[in-house]
Amino acid sequence: MAKSKNDYLTVSTYNAILHRQLQRDMNQLLIKDKLPVNITEMYLMVLILESQPISQRRASTTLAVDEGLMTRMVKHLTSLGLIHKEAAVRDRRVKELTLTEDGEKLLDYALAQFNKWWE
């Protein structure tokens, strides 16, 4: 049991290190290209692209970020014109997120840069 616990901790530690390294490298690419978003906002935009419309609460849960951070990201991305936030037709309390045309363009460009980084 102790051996498997240590193996789990080792794998978890390496996974966390790789994740932080990826985030740092991706944020550096975004800064280098003078893109106005960070990697967490990019994750949100990809999620919206794949699931649109998606509720703000579901996006928060899916990305495992607290609702305060999600609110700040949504405000930032809407102020840049990259996403659109609208009350759902069925329940006006639910806020649905979709990408704008500018958001799709930025996402296409950024993902192409990430793919070059992987090569």
From TrEMBL:
<dbReference type="GO" id="GO:0003700">
    <property type="term" value="F:DNA-binding transcription factor activity"/>
</dbReference>
<dbReference type="InterPro" id="IPR000835">
    <property type="entry name" value="HTH_MarR-typ"/>
</dbReference>
<dbReference type="InterPro" id="IPR036390">
    <property type="entry name" value="WH_DNA-bd_sf"/>
</dbReference>
<keyword id="KW-0238">DNA-binding</keyword>
<dbReference type="Pfam" id="PF01047">
    <property type="entry name" value="MarR"/>
</dbReference>
<dbReference type="GO" id="GO:0003677">
    <property type="term" value="F:DNA binding"/>
</dbReference>
<feature type="domain" description="HTH marR-type">
    <location>
        <begin position="1"/>
        <end position="119"/>
    </location>
</feature>
<keyword id="KW-0805">Transcription regulation</keyword>
<dbReference type="InterPro" id="IPR036388">
    <property type="entry name" value="WH-like_DNA-bd_sf"/>
</dbReference>
<protein>
    <submittedName>
        <fullName>MarR family transcriptional regulator</fullName>
    </submittedName>
</protein>
<keyword id="KW-0804">Transcription</keyword>
